[in-house]
Amino acid sequence: MAATPSSMLPLGTSAQHFYLPDTVTGAQYGLSELKGTNGTLIMFICNHCPYVLHVKDQLIDIARHYADWGINTIAISSNDIESYPQDAPDKMRDMMAEWGNPFAAYLYDESQAVAKAYQAACTPDLYLFDAELRCVYRGRLDTSTPKNDIPPSGEDLRQALDALLTGQPINPNQYPSIGCNIKWKDA
User: Which of 32, 100, 112, 172 is deepest in the core (most CB within 10 A)?
Assistant: First the structure.
């Protein structure tokens, strides 16, 4: 379990559009179809990452809570399934069934082009975009990791979401997420 930090996409960056298959429904979706009215949370996650599993309950709670406020949560897995078959689309669908399908979609980025466009480096790697799809937050969920005794709270991300929804400034002092590296395909 190598701890990899996120690369911290510059604030203000416009969300890159994509068109990917949803592993739950089998349908293809673009960002324009999935974005929220008041904002969009894009999360790069995967099935087997201990960092993702450690914060699973917070990810589910945040997605469900903020959906009521016009924030859609989109999960994307970009891992190489040849080397990591536990992250394959059928396993992604099964995991979402176990989690109660809390996200607008759990998309599979087979080409890894979307992860590269977002400069995603780890799982979980979190990006919050405003209603105009400009990046207003990127980085960690909170200070908790599987290796420390701090319980997951989602504090950092929740503060950014609450500020976005109330029109308050989002703290620009943001910290990288730490997680497993994205499992890139051999070039």
Answer: 112
- Angle between helices 155-166 and 50-67 in degrees, nearest 10: 20
pLDDT per position as a tens digit, 13-29? 999 999 999 999 999 99
108 class by beta-carbon count within 10 Å (0-12 exposed, 13-18 middle, 19+ buried): buried
**25-181 is a CATH 1.20.58.220 domain:** no
Cβ partners under 8 Å of residue 112, min gap 6: 78, 80, 182, 184, 185
Quote the pTM value: 0.96
Which residues pair with residue 127 across a beta bridge? Answer: 42, 138
- What's residue 179's pLDDT? 93
Q: Rounded distance, CA 47 to CA 79, Å?
A: 10
Q: Which two tokens stand for residue 21?
A: 């298959």
Q: Which of 50, 25, 42 is nearest to 77 (CA)?
A: 42
